[in-house]
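Regression test case RT-17, inverse folding.

Input:
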C-alpha cells in the first residue's frame, strides 16, 4: 500500500471508534491493516475522493449511509462456522443444560432459544437437531429457535440451508445422512429442521430486543459464542445486560471459553461444568438493579452447594483449598485460555501462572 493510499493515525482511529460505537466491533491490532484496506476500498466504491468524505457518509443518518453500513459490515465480519462446533459445549448442552430446561418446561411445553451471532446458521440448526433427539413429542411443544446476525448475507445463506462439506468437519456421519440431502456436492438441510429456525438480521448493540419483529424476549437459552471476542468492553457490558433482560429467570447464557474472563459477570450466576462455564439468570429476579452479586457454583453434581454466594474473592478458595474435583475443572478451563491472558478477578495473574499454582497445590495434596 502506498503512502497516498493509507489513512493517517487520527482518521484510522476515528473510523475504528465509529465502527465500535455503531456495531460494538473492536478492530484489533492485527486487523488494522485489513480494516484500512476495507475503508479505502469502500471509499473508492462509493465514488468518493477522500476517506474523510466516506467517514461523513457513515456518520450520517441518511438512507445512503444506512446502506453503506450494510456493505462495510459484510466486509469486516467473520462468517466462519460449522455444525456442532466445540464438541465439549454441545455435549454439555445435550447431556445437561437442555435436559434441565426441558424438564423445567414440561408442563408449559414452551421453549425459546436464541443463537446470537449465528453466522450462516450452523449453530441454530445444530440446536434444532439436538431438540429433535431430546424431545420425543416435539410437535406438541411451542418451540422457537431464533438465529440472529448482523451480516445480512450470512442470514440469507442460513435461510437457504445449503452447505459445503467443510461445514461438517465435526459432525457424525449418521447425523449428516439423517438430516441432510446431498445435491451436486452440497448438502441441503432437511425441511423439518429448517422450519424449526427463524432468522433475523439484527445488531445486538443497537437493536431493541423487544422489537416484535425480532422478538428476542423470554428466552430459555442464549448461545453467543465467538462473538464477544470482536467487541470492545463497553459493548460487551451493554449486550450482556440486554441478554440478562431477555432471559427468563434460570435461563442460561453460553459463550466461548475465554470470552468473558476479563469481565465482571454481574448480575449472572456463574455455573461451572466439567466441559465449560455457563452464566445463569438467578431465580426470582426482575430487574438488573435489584439482583444480588453473582454466585459461583459447580454443576457437576446437581446437589452440590454453591462455593460462594456473594464474594468474587472466594474464587481463590478453588486454588487454595483441597477440592480436587473443582481444581480439575478449573485446570481444564484454564488450559483453553491463552497462556498470557490475565484474569482480573484472580489478582491479574495469567492463565499459565494459575495452572502452575493449581498443579503445585494438587501435588502437595497428593
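Golden output:
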Amino acid at each position: 500500500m502506498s503512502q497516498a493510499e493509507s489513512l493517517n493515525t487520527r482518521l484510522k482511529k476515528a473510523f475504528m471508534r465509529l465502527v465500535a460505537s455503531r456495531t460494538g466491533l473492536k478492530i484489533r491490532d492485527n486487523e488494522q491493516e485489513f480494516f484500512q484496506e476495507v475503508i479505502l476500498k469502500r471509499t473508492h466504491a462509493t465514488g468518493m475522493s477522500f476517506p474523510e468524505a466516506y467517514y461523513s457518509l457513515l456518520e450520517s443518518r441518511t438512507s445512503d449511509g444506512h446502506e453503506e453500513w450494510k456493505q462495510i459490515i459484510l466486509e469486516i465480519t467473520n462468517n466462519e462456522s460449522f455444525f456442532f462446533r466445540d464438541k465439549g459445549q454441545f455435549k454439555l448442552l445435550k447431556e445437561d443444560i437442555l435436559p434441565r430446561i426441558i424438564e423445567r418446561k414440561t408442563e408449559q411445553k414452551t421453549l425459546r432459544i436464541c443463537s446470537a451471532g449465528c453466522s450462516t446458521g450452523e449453530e441454530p440448526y445444530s440446536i434444532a437437531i439436538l431438540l429433535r433427539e431430546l424431545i420425543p413429542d416435539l410437535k406438541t411443544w411451542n418451540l422457537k429457535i431464533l438465529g440472529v446476525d448482523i451480516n445480512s448475507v450470512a442470514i440469507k445463506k442460513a435461510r437457504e440451508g445449503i452447505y459445503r462439506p467443510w461445514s461438517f468437519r465435526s459432525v457424525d456421519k449418521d447425523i449428516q445422512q439423517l438430516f441432510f440431502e446431498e445435491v451436486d456436492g452440497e448438502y441441503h438441510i432437511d425441511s423439518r429442521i429448517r422450519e424449526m429456525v427463524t432468522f433475523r438480521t439484527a445488531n445486538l448493540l443497537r437493536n431493541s430486543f423487544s422489537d416484535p419483529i425480532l422478538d428476542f424476549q423470554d428466552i430459555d437459552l442464549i448461545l453467543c459464542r465467538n462473538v464477544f471476542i470482536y467487541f470492545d468492553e463497553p459493548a460487551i457490558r451493554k449486550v450482556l445486560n440486554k441478554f440478562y433482560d431477555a432471559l427468563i429467570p434460570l435461563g442460561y447464557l453460553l459463550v466461548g471459553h475465554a470470552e468473558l474472563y476479563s469481565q465482571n459477570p454481574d448480575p449472572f450466576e456463574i455455573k461451572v461444568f466439567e466441559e465449560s462455564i455457563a452464566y445463569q439468570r438467578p431465580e426470582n429476579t426482575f430487574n438488573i438493579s435489584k439482583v444480588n452479586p453473582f454466585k459461583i457454583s459447580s454443576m457437576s453434581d446437581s446437589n452440590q452447594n454453591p462455593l460462594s454466594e456473594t464474594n468474587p474473592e472466594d474464587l481463590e478458595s478453588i486454588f487454595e483449598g483441597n477440592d480436587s474435583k473443582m481444581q480439575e475443572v478449573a485446570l481444564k478451563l484454564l488450559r483453553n485460555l491463552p497462556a498470557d491472558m490475565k484474569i482480573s478477578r484472580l489478582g491479574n495473574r495469567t492463565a499459565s501462572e494459575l495452572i502452575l499454582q493449581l498443579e503445585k497445590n494438587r501435588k502437595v495434596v497428593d
